[in-house]
Structures are given as structure tokens and as C-alpha cells.
Design goal:
The complex is a heterodimer of chains A (315) and B (337). By secondary structure, chain A is an alpha/beta fold. Chain A is built from 10 helices and 15 strands. Chain B has a single domain, classed as ABC transporter involved in vitamin B12 uptake, BtuC. The chains are: A alpha/beta (315), B mainly alpha (337). The A-B interface holds A 54, 57-59, 70, 72-73, 75-77, 79, 81-89, 92-93, 96-97, 99-100, 102-106, 134, 152 and B 85, 212-213, 215-216, 219-220, 222-224, 226-227, 229-233, 272, 276-279, 281, 336-337.
Chain lengths: 315, 337
């Protein structure tokens, strides 16, 4: 990889020191963020993801070092801090992103206004411009916070769990947006997240926080295949390599399923979820027939219009 | 209606201020016709020459004091609400006024010092220091606690402590000193001479200047300290500046006019009702104008009924301020910064 390194940290230790007590979360880790890359930062709750992000942003002092610097023109953040200023409008919020470039009189230039507008456009919140923050849904508020970070126009953006508390649709939208931004504007974007499935599908690189105060860094597929995820998340009944929840074949019945495409996959899912084993050797044969928008499941000479009917019959 | 006010507040508020100013200066125990008041204001001679003295030495000083005090307290309240991100913050709620009162009580009631220092300037200085000390204490405590309600309770406790110390001081002081102090606590905008107004004006200008250079940090502060830092705001320096500015504003007004309640708390909310923004570049002038208007209104009200009979200004501001706060909370279900 030859992309430019935008943020680099060598031998970084993160944690809290209060008096003689020291709580170390990460010890001697080497990190870098490259232009155009989306990095997902994963790990269990309480392992110190937020602290590491704050430390990288210069908001928290690293351990074993007095060097703490914030550079508002280089790193912008989206944090989990609750925003109390709910009377603010979306435009006012995004405008704050330009503050590092303004003097005390905060007069916006035309260029500032262009950047604010494009941040609002990129996050698709044009219709929310004059809405107050308390009028927004969680997803819209998160988009507005991302727009503020974009308006800050920094090469590096650090986001702490931007998809928490959002529904699937919003989660996908935000991850896609971040991925697109990394590519199109050649930014380095770090996202702390719990969304394993989304991270596996969108991240260029994964930082995995293990319990040993170190980070495992690699591309998603490598980490799946070498079992790093299994060790750290200790999946109970989830097979990461197939991406499926493990079903117990508690009925001990087999069925033979004939069909293809999505219909086949979802029928198989329904059968396995209900404890059946799909086996070519089975004497019971279910064939799926779909024409136009109508799907039918046929066993012998009986037809079923829904999977629910089929499953009830099999039981 | 709201849209019109929103758009033209910078004409409407000054216009309202002028109207209330004229109303305020034409009220008083001596009846001066409005035509003569206008004549004095434009520099010509009124029908009765004494009216001119009454106007300049009593009415005008009082009106100017009202505007300065109202604007300063309201600005102090705005800054505190932003700094603590707490809509119920205000100079009186968080104990700043009590701090100033305590300092003044110590100055006035410990006798010996009094003869040497009881000039208006020293009262102003002592009151500012008193409110700054309390502000520092509240600020230090606010770092240790996360939620807003606790902070308000701490403010109440600080108020309780200071008033009990004042109580002890009263118990051991001479009757004359106590009376002087008690009169001061009722609050008054009518007793300032021109020198004192100059000092008050100077303090307000200093406070306002600090506030203006803090517009940027104040706006970003609304997002919380981590975001403020990430946008290049120097936290310690900004917080200290806002602290000094607010203490000067509150301290100097409290020194000359006594502890005036509710203006600092209620006026920023009144202003926000009509001017819908969180940008302090707009909020600062709007809140100061509203504060000046509210104080002129309260003062006019305090002399309206019998003309000879003047109510303590503190009673009026509380009578008006408390319902306003309740109304704002009920109306918007939740009160916001």
C-alpha cells in the first residue's frame, strides 16, 4: 500500500492516571491511518475505544507522554457526548465546523459557505437545514454531527460509534457514506463500531482491540479466516465464516429441498431455524416454484402459498 | 408575528427600549409633562428650570442605571447558561449574588474597614471579588459532577452558607451597619450619582468587551468541552475569560444596585422566545437590550401605583421573573439553553 499516511502514532499508551493509580487501556501500540481508507475499530464495550479515539484527537493526554496536541485543521471528531444545545439549528451546528478557520468575529467567507453547503449536501440533510436539533431523529442528528465534522474539512475524521442506537437502514447509510467519503475525498476515516457485519463489508482495515492492551490490525477477511474475531468476540452459536447463526437440528427430520436463488436460501433458513436438516437423500421432497410474483412450495401434490403454512404442515 | 419579530428584532427592541426609557423618565413623584421631558432631552429649556435638575440628577441617572444593570445581569445570565449548558443557571441561582452580598456584608458590617474603604468603588471591587470567588468554587465543583440538577442544588447550598454567615455578621454588628446593609439588599437603581454611573458603565463595558471576544468559544461551548477542544478552543483560557467577565458584570451591578433577582435567569429565555438562534453574536446584543427593557419596565412598575410610593426593585423583578420562568417551562415542556 502506498497511500499517504495522514495520522501516525508510535508507541502510544492510552489510559487514565489519577494520582498513583494508573488504569492502562492500551500499551505501546503503533497506529497509522492512510488517505482513502476506512478503518473500523472494534472491540468489546469498556475496552477503551473511546479513550483511544480521544487520545488520537488530542482531547486526552496519552500515558507516558506529555505530548498532547489538538490540531483542529487536521483531525475532526464525532463523539458519543450528548449534545445539550438542542435549540441549535442544523445549519448553525454545521457552521461550527468552520470555526477553526475563523477569527473572533466569526464572519463566514464565500468559501466557508460553499464548504458548509457541500457538507450538508454530502450527508443528504438539505431538507433539515432549518430544523432544530431536538426535532431530529437519532439518525438525522448523527448525520448532522457528521456534516459538522465534514465542514471542518480535515484530512482525518475520527468517529466514535456513530451508528449506535440507529436502525439498520441508517446504519448502512452512514457506513456507506463514510466509505464513499474516504474514497472520493481521500480522507482517512476511523470508525469505532459494534456492527460486525457492516464492518466486514465496508472496512478497508480493521483494528481489533483484544483484552491484552494491544491491537490486532488487518483486513477483514484475514481476521475472519485466522480466527482473530472468534477469539476476541467469543461467539456463542454464531459461525462467522458462513455469517450465520448456528442452528441445532433438534427435530432430527430431514427434507430434500429443490429450488434456487433467494427463494432457496430463505426456505432453507426457515427450515433450519425450525430444526430441520436439509439433505438430498431425504424421502420428503419440497420443490419451490416461482412464476411472476407468486411463489409456491410443493410437497407431493400439496401446494403452499406461504412458508408459514409449509412449516406448520411439516411440524 | 414571530417571523416579523425574528427578522426585525434589531429595530423593534431598540424602539421598545426608547419607549420604555421615555415612560421611565416621565414617571416620578414630581410631575413633569412629557413635552418638557422631550424639551430637556433635546437640549432646550423646560417650562420650570427645577425640572431640569430633577431630570438630570434623578430621573436620567435612574434610567441609565436600570439599562446598564438590566443589560449586564442578562448578559451574565446568558454566559452562565452557556458555560454550564444549563438553562437554569443564573447569577442568583448559582450563588454569585450571594457571594457579592457576603463580601459587601463583610465590608459594611466589620466597621473598622468601613471608614477606610466604604467608597462606592471599593464596594464595587469587593462585590466583584465576592462573586468571582463563588463562581470559581461553583466552576471547580461543576467539574466533579455531571448532572445539572446537582449543580443547582450546590448553588442553593452556597447561597444558604453565605446567608448564614451574613446572619452571624448581623448578630454581632451595630444596628446602623445592619440597616445600611439591609437597605442595600432590597436593591435600588435610584441612588447612584454620575461618578458611580461612570464606574458601573465602565464595568459593564469591560464585561461586554470580554463577552465579545468570547463569542466564538461561547458558541462552540454549547456542544460540550470535547467538541470545543477539537475545534481549537483553548478551554482553560476561555473558561477563565468568561468567568472574569461574568463576575465583573454580576459583581458590579450587585455592588451598586443590590442583589437583583431573576433578571439574569429569566431575560435570556425571554430573548430566546423571540430571537431563535444559538449564535452569541446575535444573542449578546439581543439579550442585553431585552435586559435593559425588562429593568426599565420593572422600575416603571415599582413607582406606578401611587407615584410617591416606591416598591423595592427586587420585589418587582421576582414578581415578573418567576412567572416568566414558569411560563417558559410549561410552554415548551422543557427549558433549553
Amino acid at each position: 500500500m502506498s497511500q499517504e499516511i495522514l495520522l501516525q502514532s508510535k508507541n502510544l499508551s492510552v489510559g487514565y492516571a489519577e494520582g498513583d493509580q494508573r488504569n492502562v487501556l492500551f500499551e505501546h501500540v503503533d497506529l497509522e491511518l492512510r488517505a482513502g481508507e476506512l478503518v473500523c475499530f472494534m472491540g468489546a464495550n469498556g475496552i477503551g475505544k473511546s479513550s483511544l479515539i480521544r487520545t488520537l484527537a488530542g482531547l486526552q493526554k496519552p500515558l507516558l507522554s506529555d505530548k498532547q496536541s489538538t490540531d483542529p485543521t487536521k483531525v475532526s471528531v464525532v463523539l458519543t457526548d450528548r449534545v445539550n444545545a438542542v435549540n441549535m439549528t442544523v445549519t448553525e451546528l454545521v457552521t461550527l465546523g468552520r470555526y477553526p478557520y475563523l477569527d473572533w468575529n466569526i464572519k463566514l467567507t464565500n468559501e466557508d459557505k460553499l464548504i458548509i453547503n457541500s457538507a450538508i449536501r454530502d450527508t443528504h440533510i438539505e431538507s433539515l437545514r432549518d430544523k432544530k436539533l431536538y426535532e431530529l431523529s437519532d439518525g438525522q442528528l448523527q448525520m448532522a454531527m457528521i456534516a459538522r465534522a465534514l465542514a471542518q474539512d480535515t484530512p482525518v475524521i475520527l468517529l466514535d460509534e456513530p451508528t449506535a442506537h440507529l436502525d439498520l437502514n441508517n446504519r448502512v447509510e452512514i457506513m456507506n457514506l463514510l466509505r464513499r467519503l474516504a474514497r472520493s475525498s481521500n480522507k482517512a476515516i476511523l470508525v469505532a463500531t459494534h456492527e460486525l457485519d457492516l464492518a466486514l463489508q465496508t472496512a478497508d482495515l480493521i483494528w481489533l482491540a483484544g483484552g491484552d492492551k494491544k491491537l490486532i490490525i488487518g483486513i477483514p477477511e484475514d481476521l475472519v479466516l485466522n480466527g482473530s474475531f472468534d477469539v476476541i468476540f467469543q461467539f456463542k452459536g454464531f459461525d462467522l465464516k458462513t455469517g450465520k447463526v448456528f442452528h441445532e437440528a433438534w427435530r432430527n427430520h430431514t427434507v430434500n429441498l429443490i429450488g434456487d436463488g433467494y427463494e432457496y436460501l430463505w426456505t432453507k433458513n426457515a427450515l433450519e431455524r425450525n430444526g430441520f436438516i436439509v439433505d438430498k437423500e431425504s424421502p420428503i421432497t419440497i420443490s419451490i416454484q416461482s412464476r411472476e410474483n407468486l411463489i409456491e412450495w410443493i410437497i407431493g401434490n400439496e401446494q403452499y402459498r406461504t412458508l408459514e403454512e409449509l412449516i406448520r404442515k411439516l411440524q | 408575528m414571530k417571523k416579523v419579530v425574528q427578522k426585525y428584532w434589531w429595530i423593534l427592541l431598540p424602539a421598545l427600549l426608547v419607549v420604555l426609557f421615555l415612560l421611565n423618565v416621565s414617571l416620578g413623584s414630581v410631575k413633569i409633562p412629557i413635552a418638557d421631558t422631550l424639551r430637556i432631552l433635546t437640549g432646550s429649556e423646560p417650562s420650570n428650570p427645577i425640572w431640569k435638575d430633577i431630570f438630570f440628577d434623578f430621573r436620567l441617572t435612574k434610567a441609565i442605571t436600570c439599562m446598564l444593570a438590566g443589560g449586564a445581569l442578562a448578559l451574565g445570565g446568558l454566559q452562565m447558561q452557556t458555560l454550564f449548558r444549563n438553562p437554569l443557571a443564573g447569577p442568583d441561582v448559582l450563588g454569585l449574588s450571594s457571594g457579592a452580598s457576603l463580601a459587601v456584608a463583610i465590608l459594611l458590617m466589620t466597621g473598622g474597614l468601613g471608614s477606610l474603604f466604604s467608597s462606592s468603588l471599593s464596594i464595587a471591587l469587593v462585590a466583584s471579588i465576592g462573586s468571582a470567588m463563588i463562581f470559581l468554587a461553583v466552576l471547580a465543583i461543576s467539574h466533579r459532577i455531571r448532572d445539572n440538577i446537582s449543580l443547582l442544588i450546590i448553588g442553593l447550598m452556597i447561597g444558604a452558607v453565605t446567608s448564614s454567615i451574613v446572619g452571624v455578621l448581623q448578630y454581632i454588628s451595630k444596628a446602623d451597619d445592619i440597616q445600611y446593609y439591609l437597605v442595600w439588599t432590597f436593591g435600588s437603581v435610584a441612588s447612584l450619582n454620575w461618578t458611580e454611573i461612570l464606574i458601573l458603565g465602565f464595568g459593564v463595558v469591560v464585561g461586554l468587551a470580554i463577552s465579545i471576544i468570547c463569542i466564538k468559544p461561547l458558541n462552540v461551548w454549547l456542544l460540550g468541552e470535547n467538541y470545543a477542544m477539537s475545534m481549537g478552543i483553548h478551554l482553560i483560557r476561555s473558561r477563565l475569560l468568561i468567568l472574569i467577565g461574568t463576575s465583573v458584570l454580576t459583581g458590579i451591578v450587585t455592588a451598586f444596585c443590590g442583589p437583583i433577582a431573576f433578571v439574569g435567569l429569566a431575560v435570556p429565555h425571554l430573548a430566546r422566545l423571540v430571537i431563535d438562534t444559538t449564535n452569541h453574536k446575535v444573542l449578546i446584543p439581543a439579550v442585553m437590550l431585552t435586559g435593559a427593557i425588562v429593568m426599565l419596565f420593572c422600575d416603571s412598575l415599582s413607582r406606578l401605583p401611587g407615584s410617591d410610593f416606591v416598591l423595592p426593585i427586587n420585589a418587582i423583578t421576582a414578581l415578573i421573573g418567576a412567572p416568566v420562568v414558569i411560563w417558559v417551562i410549561v410552554r415548551s415542556k422543557v427549558i433549553r439553553v
